[in-house]
Specification:
Length: 281
């Protein structure tokens, strides 16, 4: 069993030192094997220009991830946290890093970008949807708006993910994403699914918290409120590999992977535009 914790924080825009200290304290207090923090937990999110985002960005590995590595080495924990990643001289990505006692073990760059906050100015993610094989399990990462696209977690599941972590910055308007989507994404993919949202106010938005830890059946094992808070639960990651679910042998059995019909799914890989409606008369 893997003990997973979500630490809902209230990042301060551009204050990397304060945000890093909050992350380090959260790691040490969580008492968990895997500790997940929100999207842009290190940098904040609501920047109004690319230049402002670049000033709050760090490379990977970088100063923040090295401090987090030290905390991982001290506690034995693994950590997922969000940051603005500076790549080369001008590259800027909304990223999530997976860090363990030996350093950065994986980096995911947000693929689906809404017109909101710093995502208006970041580069599109260019790493696809990798799965990271770690001593604590096979972990896939997504970020916030990625969870609105069912293809993304499905790709991770088919690549062998046992657990998907989704750091996010869901504001008040994202009620459906925060309150309903995590369970659906877990159940439809038979994969453990963890969302870690931020709280507080920034750039005119109020963030709703409500982080969740869901098992592969979609059952909510832990759910947070709307304040800074840490939640935790134990997950059996290996159970996500057993896709065949038997409710009544020979009478009621489901396998959401084996029962797929990929031969009918080709339209998913095509870029299409809505058909134009022709006016008559």
């Amino acid at each position: 069993m893997l003990r997973v914790a979500c630490v809902q924080t209230d990042p301060k825009l551009g204050d990397l030192a304060q945000n890093l200290n909050r992350i380090l304290r959260g790691i040490r207090e969580a008492n968990a094997d895997l500790v997940v923090f929100p999207e842009c937990a290190l940098s904040g999110y609501g920047f109004d220009s690319r230049e402002a985002g670049l000033r709050a960005a760090e490379p990977l590995p970088g100063p923040g991830s090295k401090e987090i590595q030290t905390a991982c080495r001290e506690t034995g924990a693994w950590v997922v946290f969000g940051l603005l990643e500076r790549a080369g001289k001008r590259g800027l990505f909304n990223s999530a890093a997976l860090v363990g006692p030996k350093g950065v073990a994986g980096v995911y760059r947000k693929a689906h970008l809404p017109y909101l906050g710093i995502d208006r100015f970041t580069d599109k993610g260019d790493v696809g949807f990798p799965v990271f094989d770690t001593p604590v399990g096979r972990i896939g990462l997504l970020i916030c708006y990625d969870g609105s696209f069912p293809e993304a977690p499905r790709v991770l599941k088919l690549a062998g993910a046992q657990l998907i972590c989704l750091p996010t910055n869901w504001p008040e308007a994202a009620e459906v994403s925060a309150c309903h989507s995590p369970m659906v994404r877990a159940q439809e993919n038979h994969v453990n699914f963890v969302t870690c949202n931020r709280v507080g106010q920034e750039a005119g938005f109020t963030f709703r918290g409500e982080s969740k830890i869901c098992d592969h059946s979609g059952r909510v094992l832990a759910s947070a409120g709307r304040e800074e808070q840490t939640i935790s639960a134990e997950l059996d990651l290996a159970s996500a590999d057993r896709n065949r679910v038997v409710y009544s042998e020979g009478r009621y059995e489901l396998d959401r992977i084996a029962h797929r019909r990929p031969e009918f799914y080709a339209p998913l890989a095509r870029r299409t535009r809505p058909a134009r409606v022709r006016r008559r008369g």
